Hints:
By secondary structure, the protein is α+β, with helices and mostly antiparallel strands. Helices cover 40% and strands 21% of the residues. The longest helix is centred in the N-terminal third of the chain and has 20 residues, at 19-38.
Amino acid sequence: xxxxxxxxxxxEREIVYSPKRWRYLWDKRQRALEIMERLxxxxxxxxxxxxxxxxxxxxxxxxxxxxxxxxxxxxxxxxGLVNERRIVMATPWHLIxxxxxxxxxxxxxxxxxxxxxxxxxxxxxxxxxxxxxVRNKQRVPGVNKKLILIVPTEKGHIEREVVGRESEVxxxxxxDIGIVEERVKILTRRDSIGRTGIYLNEEVPEWxxxxxxxxxxADRDPNVRRKVREASGV
Length: 234
């Protein structure tokens, strides 16, 4: 799937959903709810386009656990659904996360170290909603990968450009202005120089646990080791 580019739409525009688009949304929401019900004891959150509502047929279903949990408990809750397991880290300064792929479009993400409040705000930036919100068919505002703010409406959504509205966007999403400025800088820079990939993306063998593999990675990689120590307060 081609990478989405930052676009400029100037003022704002309203998008009215077709019946087909609504069907895509509620089908993906139902799938997300089935997974979230299994994870209900861990306060699962749905984030991204399925939380906002601006889905396409190929939109991913992204679920996150917002705090550190022993990985085996998550895997037990998802027993029979786990497909692929990976440890990912966007850059040497970002959160270390476990990814459990359920299918080609559905992923459960959870932190392998204690996340900071700022790291959790990344999910609010893209739009994040809890299990009750999913059950009640609520939608939330958030920013897509094109740096467009999506504001849900009864008929679909309104799109507004983020650049030039950073303070307004931060207030609407309930995040620090620094998060907005950081994401604007990263996404616009990425368009000018291209995506450079992520720092860590390692498969977890089926006979090993996430934490066990993370220890092996930390032993060989000083950046990962530093991040683990910082998160544990050592």
